[in-house]
Amino acid sequence: MSVVRGPGIVGVGETPALRHPDASCSTAGLMAQAVGQALRGAGLAPADVDGLGVASFTLRPDRAIDLAWRLGLRLNWCMQDEMGGASAINLLRQAWLALEAGQADTIVLVSGDHFTGADFAGLVRGYNRSATEYLSPLGCEGPNPLFAMLTQRQMARTGLRREDYGALCVAQRQWAAGNPNAAYRQPLTLAQYLEAPLVAPPLGRLDCVPVVSGASALVLRARPQGASVRLVASDARYNNDQQEGDGLETGIADFAPALWRRAGVGPEGMDVVSVYDDYPAMALAQLRDLGFAGTDDLPAFIARRIATRALPVNTAGGQLSAGQAGTAGGMHGLVEVSRQLLGQAGARQLPGLRHGLVTGYGMVQLRYGMCANAAVLAAEAA
Q1: How many C-beta atoms lie closer than 10 Å to residue 294's C-beta?
Q2: What is the rounded distance in angstroms from the CA atom of residue 169 to the CA atom of residue 206?
């Protein structure tokens, strides 16, 4: 008797992270590259696609349906999401439901942004009403000052030092060396990390994600024929604490126990992990919320599991080394874990993978991120 398989991720694509793109670069063009790459990897053509999910800050004035037309897609299902680092898992969860419900057979999810200097400055200055009406007039433009304060609070609470954050950044740079798409692949030493100019104390330049232009894409099928990646469990929290908490605990802490129960496996069973790393402090907060480490154990956890790379975290370099292409920052981790589980990670491929974890985080209001989500994925053999 044959087993009927559910939906699966069957292809991934990602453009190089461009620090200084040429004048011909565009958000739609980058997205088209990532989608084309993902489809070719899955052995599919645009004519096979009947669903599209898009996340972007800079695609406008075009939207998802405009991109579909430009890509030559005829769709049964179309969705757009603009929740930054949480967008990728938002899209994944909704696409999965659509495939299970028979609303589409093949869905492409793509996130991407192209920034000029003026584009990015305008984005952070007018990010939302809080930025426009309260933060920007005070000279607090962008998230660096807000997360500098949060990092100060985390250091006071946990005993973490700048050297500990540096060890995380150095480890991620080592992973990035195997990723040809990463913006920064050259070796990084702890001394170089500590010597980098301070941006908003205690944050130095290497604690802040480099802004890049790029795009990432996934292909999902309702009934995959070959190897695929299955969504085992997922959860999300939005506006979890009404911005009244201290920011050191994300919404992930609220749903993590239930997520692991539904997945039937815990942190110890994760073979590869991607946590949203807009700042080292937030990568560590999410790892703690998920149960990989305790509040009182974070310095030792970094030395024992992160610096040694015993726990494979952000194996494409994370955003801190690979770069943050706007909304593609969240999709970067989802693409990497899917790539690893599909066995397509090239020089950085890990052996014998079964389960992976991805998180999303973001959308700053007055202090820190309001959106948090996570997904447990599993490799499915052909």
Answers
A1: 11
A2: 8
* Nearest by Cα to 319 from 329, 331, 308, 307: 329
Q: Cα separation of 57 and 218, whole Å?
A: 18
Same structural domain for residues 170 and 259? yes
Same domain membership, residue 269 and residue 294: yes
156-194 pLDDT, tens digit per residue, is 999 999 999 999 999 999 999 999 999 999 999 999 999
Q: What is the mean pLDDT of residues 280-287?
A: 98
Residues 92 and 202 in one domain: no
Same domain, 174 and 238: yes
- Decide the pairing of beta strands 106-113 and 51-55: parallel
What Rg, from alpha-carbon coordinates, does the chain have?
A: 19
What residues make up the domain containing 257? 142-211+230-380
Helices (H), the chain: 27-42, 64-71, 87-100, 117-125, 129-130, 144-158, 162-176, 190-195, 252-263, 280-289, 298-301, 318-322, 328-342
Q: Structurally, how many domains does the chain consist of?
A: 2
Cβ 375 vs Cβ 234: under 8 Å: yes
Torsion of CA 106, 229, 274, 170, to 10 degrees: -110
Report helix, strand or coil for 367.
coil
Which of 226, 255, 279 represents a domain boundary (last residue)?
Answer: 226
- 351 & 312 share domain: yes
Determine, yes or no, domain membership for 137.
no
Would the pTM count as exceeding 0.85? yes
* The residue type at 209: V
Cα distance between residue 112 and residue 140, in whole Å: 26
The 3-state DSSP class for residue 84 equals helix
Question: Which tokens is 235 given?
Answer: 């959860």
Residue 183 lies in a domain: yes
